[in-house]
Amino acid sequence: MLFALPVLLVFVVFSWGPILKGLVMSFQQTNLIDPVKWVGLENFRYVLTDPGVGQAALNTVWFTLLALLFGFPVPVLLAMFLSELRGRSWLYPTLAYLPVITPPVVAILLWRFFYDPSPSGMFNSILGSVGLGPFLWLDSPHSAMPSIVLEATWAGAGNAVIIYLAALTSVRADLYEAAELDGAGVVRRVWHVMLPHLRGVLLLMLLLQVIGTMQLFTEPLLFTGGGPQGSTMTILLLIYNYAFVNGDYGAATALSVLLALVLAVVSAVFQLATRGWSTE
Amino acid sequence: MSGDRGALSDTDRRLTRVRVPFVIGQVVVLIGLVVAGLGPLLWLLKAAISPTQDSIRSPLAWFPSGQVQWQNLATAWQQGHIGYYLGNTAIIAAGTALASLIVCTTAGYVLSVLRPRWGAVMSAGILATLFVPHIVSLVPLYLTVLKVPVVHANLTNTFWAVWLPPAANAFNVLVVKRFFDGIPREYFEAARIDGAGSIRVFTSLVLPLSRPILGVVVLLSIISSWKDYLWPLLVLTNPDLQPVSVALPKIAKVTELNIQLAGLFLALLIPVLLFLVFQRAFLRGVGLSGGIKA
């Protein structure tokens, strides 16, 4: 069974092993200096009483909600529209995918420049030309998180568009024809044929987006470092700080396990709640 | 994009009340996509060859000082060492792609063609990792790389630390396995009757037949390793080994803006070119990923 060797090796060492180790470590004190010690639920108690965790959890949920509000409908509508186009069909998806190809670090450093709070900053001069602003963007605790959401939506929308487009290619033409013969107008054809066809993918992408956005990290680290006044400190950034700034690996894994539990509960509730409508 | 027809029929398309809003919508969407997709890229190109003051004072003006600084690109490449860091990124991406390729083809072959009795268990174990958020294993994975179990090697500050962990990618394994499932079983029987062993079936039958899917796996793993930031930041602390994504924020802190923007442009150029050249395979691969996840 020579062929199974590579996959078993990498999964045991770099996937299954670390997952189990993470669970175990959340009950231990590990700082790479003192010997490893079992501390029971001590890490969890520490994490749950850290006032920073509550704030970070709220920020993370706030980001997730904002990201859903902006980031979820736009790709759906765009894909539905693009699927109706004839000819030159490669142009639109290619344009939509360019931000996805952009390495996040490049995008963030570029957007950080766009968000220059002075009146001559990129976005401020665009909005200034129609009499708005100037805005503080990343420098204000109120607008920092929405600014991050805007960039993250720009960076992620293209991916969802392509996935929806691929799903829409499999709508059978005779369904539309039948609907048309029954006298359904364009709007009703979209509502009763196109959307129901996307239902499964939509629900899945919704769940994946929630799981993905709850693990926001690079953007707050590079845009704001968690500030101003902790307004963009997310759970993942906190885990990073616990582990790689404070060297408290036990607390970091405990918080990771808690986040994973929350995600698991969210997924389970979501699956139960939508079981009725996800089947076609 | 769609097959024979979409929600709009040919008759609809001729109606004025459908056609006019549709055409207007098309123009709006196209402008929107050009501004959002191509806009930042083109602006970055302009800013990369502009003096710093031009970009800061009037970012939207067309070379207000009349100066075009082509030398910014050369300065960023040499003094900013962007060229060197891009080389590191390329080495990391190539190694990641190769490792992923080895793992997912052999795994796909075991699960789809050889099908040992314990294949189902392995398959379930791989599938299960798709449902575990990455965050659970971030810290323990870091400690694993610091001291690999059994062999006790420290992989940090070696490229192995960035090549190997991404190869444990359940998604790649499943996509490749599914593709192998589509190869007619008669081929394998014919090859076996001709006396080919399982290694020979793998190298001269399965691999050549699956070139399209392997291309997709390679492209997606190159791009994801090109985009990666957190992991190389953690495990490659030696600046000589760092990829451009880790180097850029540090360069941004100490370099003048025009050189910084030129660096960003250079770092963006290669993935964009790669994407434009292999655009079809890319978009198919991403669409495929939606199909697998659904």
Summarize the structure.
The complex is a heterodimer of chains A (280) and B (294). Chain A is an all-alpha fold and 280 residues long. Chain A is 71% helix and 1% strand.
What is the topological layout?
The complex is a heterodimer of chains A (280) and B (294).
Chain A lengths: L4 H21 L2 E2 L7 E2 L3 H8 L1 H21 L1 H10 L8 H11 L2 H11 L7 H7 L15 H25 L4 H9 L4 H28 L4 H6 L11 H11 L3 H30 L2
Antiparallel strand pairs in A: 1-2
Chain B lengths: L9 H5 L1 H33 L3 H6 L13 H8 L3 H33 L4 H11 L5 H12 L13 H4 L6 H12 L3 H9 L4 H12 L1 H17 L2 H6 L8 H11 L2 H21 L1 H15 L1
Helix pairs in contact in B: 2-15, 4-15, 5-9, 5-11, 5-12, 5-14, 12-16, 14-15
How many strands, what sense, and barrel or not for the largest sheet of chain B? Answer: none
Tell me, rounded to a whole number, the average pLDDT of chain B: 86
- In the CATH scheme, what's the topology name of the largest domain in chain B? MetI-like fold
Which architecture of chain A does the CATH hierarchy give at level 2? Orthogonal Bundle
What do the pLDDT scores of chain A average to?
Answer: 86
Number of E strands of chain B: 0
Strand content of chain A: under 5%
Q: Output the CATH class name of chain A.
A: Mainly Alpha
Range of strand content of chain B: under 5%
Oligomer: heterodimer
Largest sheet of chain A: 2 strands, antiparallel
Write the CATH homologous superfamily of the largest domain in chain B: MetI-like
Structural class of chain B: mainly alpha
Gross geometry of chain B: flat
Largest interface: A-B, 103 and 105 residues
**Terminal Cα separation of chain A, in Å?**
41 Å
**Overall structural domain count of chain B:** 2
CATH class of the largest domain in chain B: Mainly Alpha
Domain ABC transmembrane type-1 (chain A): 57-270
GO cellular component, one term (chain A): plasma membrane
Family (chain A): Belongs to the binding-protein-dependent transport system permease family.
Protein name (chain A): Multiple sugar transport system permease protein
